[in-house]
Design a protein that fits this description.
single chain; alpha/beta; Aspartate Aminotransferase, domain 2; Aspartate Aminotransferase, domain 1; 14 helices
Length: about 400
């Protein structure tokens, strides 16, 4: 039986830092510096020099693409097993998402299929640490070096995971993390982009903050000094950018949660360990493979139902009837979400309306990733966000009862 202690849903430090912001008040050109502290400390924890806070984890990746000069006519390679945002940011930048299949055991993007999908138009790769497990980063970075590509790690689901001794987030040219409510640490929504290259980090900052001319990669550099802004001849906007800033009060919550990140990750690992004990005794539930030298951070515990006669819906229904929290299936392969085939049809039929995609967008009706397509109908994604270890053990016991019901 797994052992651990319960932790609060929101840390005392988060409440303290929120009060600091409230006591300081809201001002256009000054703040108590909470956001700057979070940017600096987060980047350092993940082995980078620069952090840029954003309103969410989609905005982070969009800024990274813009900083890398990805745009119209370019291609961005992404996996089919991910949240839609990973592909959507390519479209936001005017580029085309191209899908590389997954490894059959880890379900992360396959470096071999990335190699097959690289063309003269490829500009970036966004590997996803799905469920909390890193992609195979060494060969991906080798391909990026060979072809001059930018790598943006999508680590929305992976905090303090490790790959061959390196913390996940320290290997790509950029790494994106989400603070959305379901993630390891949260402030309700938000995200951060980290980077080790000052020129790229500055470009990402400007992409995230309206392209203001004076912005830099320095922590907390998100506004133009009043003495400059008040001048009638001041040229504010030298780059194209968006208004993706994270409010200081949200940064205060995020800083409090970041300062207890280790215990938040250990909580997830504890829940996953309880589930893993149960799954180890079942020969027809196959967990996501964690290769040697990887450390999984278990945003969710993922397994595949390997017996064809067991219906996914019936299994979930029984789990719920026995008191289980429920679980998620896998997302559709992203290219099967209705918007992408609709968009490829529109680009073909109305090229004057979508000139950036005319002649280069794939027909997403025809896109296939056969390895991944065979897997999603059998996937279960079990929750790991149990702040009370007794709840984690109870869910594991219910999973065991559910397995017995089908055995």
């Amino acid at each position: 039986m797994c052992k651990a202690t319960s932790i609060p849903r929101v840390s005392a430090k988060a409440r303290k830092y929120v009060n600091e912001v409230l006591d300081f008040g809201f001002h256009n050109c000054s703040s108590p510096g909470i956001g700057a502290r979070l940017e600096r400390q987060f980047a350092e924890r993940f082995g980078c020099r620069f952090g840029i806070l954003h309103a969410n984890g989609t905005a982070t990746m969009h800024s990274a693409l813009l900083a890398a000069d990805v745009g119209v006519g370019d291609e961005v390679i992404v996996p089919p097993f991910t949240v839609f945002s990973t592909a959507a940011v390519a479209l936001h930048a005017g580029a085309v998402p191209v899908f590389a299949d997954v490894d059959p055991d880890t379900w992360t993007i396959s470096p071999d299929d990335i190699r097959r999908k690289i063309t003269s138009r490829t500009k970036a790769i966004i590997p996803v640490s799905i469920g909390g497990l890193a992609a195979d980063m060494d060969p991906i970075m080798e391909l990026a070096t060979q072809h001059g590509l930018t790598v943006i790690e999508d680590n929305a689901q992976c905090f303090l995971g490790y790959y061959k001794g390196r913390v996940v987030g320290s290997m790509g040219h950029f790494a994106s993390f989400s603070f959305q409510a379901s993630k390891h640490m949260t402030c309700g929504d938000g995200g951060i982009l980290i980077c080790d290259d000052e020129e790229l980090a500055t470009a990402a900052r400007k992409a995230a903050v309206l392209g203001f001319s004076t912005l830099s990669a320095r922590p907390g550099d998100v506004v133009v000094a009043e003495e400059l802004r008040c001048q009638p001849t001041f040229q504010r906007h030298t780059h194209f950018g968006y208004n993706y800033r994270l409010p200081e009060i949200a940064a205060a919550v995020a800083l409090g949660e970041f300062e207890r990140l280790d215990e938040l990750v250990e909580m997830r690992k504890h829940s996953a360990a309880c589930l893993a004990e149960v799954v180890a005794d079942c020969d027809w539930l196959v967990p996501q493979k964690t290769p040697d030298e990887y450390v999984h951070s278990y945003w969710t515990y993922i397994a595949r139902i390997a017996r064809e006669e067991i219906d996914w819906t019936a299994f979930r229904r029984k789990f719920g009837e026995l008191g289980g929290d429920g679980f998620y299936g896998a997302y559709l392969p992203v290219y099967r979400e209705p918007i992408l085939p609709k968009l490829s049809d529109a680009a073909r039929n109305q090229p004057q309306r979508y000139p950036q995609f005319a002649g280069i967008m794939p027909d997403y009706h025809q896109v296939r990733c056969p390895t991944w397509e065979a897997i999603p109908p059998r996937i279960i994604q079990l929750k790991t966000n149990h702040f009370d270890p007794a709840d984690a053990q109870r869910q594991a016991d219910i999973l065991a009862d559910t397995i017995r019901a089908f055995s």
